[in-house]
Amino acid sequence: xxxxxxxxxxxxxxxxxxxxxxxxxxxxxxxxxxxxxxxxxxxxxxxxxxxxxxxxxxxxxxxxxxxxxxxxxxxxxxxxxxxxxxxxxxxxxxxxxxxxxxxxxxxxxxxxxxxxxxxxxxxxxxxxxxxxxxxxxxxxxxxxxxxxxxxxxxxxxxxx
Length: 160
What we know:
With 160 residues, the protein is an all-alpha fold. The chain has three helices and no strands.
């Protein structure tokens, strides 16, 4: 440690007073001892982290499986149809994609969620210029649901 302290002394160290020299040496010694302690504790800490990484990953997986089982049980208690293991799709038996099916293109406007011209049906015509209170505007999910049903068919029970 004394070699480290001597190496870290500035070039004009001998010009300083004796109390300042002692103070510098003491602070340098304390800093070097802290650095040495950190370096010595790094290797065991790294080994500890590597040893417990697998345990941590197992814990995360088990929490996910518990949450999944809880969701399935809640769905079952609420009366929904639960399919715990969905059937495996054999993609080799499906017909090739021939681009013959065309889906309707949704209208595009400034917002992907709210069209101000279609959501004003329940408001009066005099309030069109009112920009305050965006919570009073509503989005009609009926058209969206019709579009999704035309693309994907009727709603199916959720897979878990």
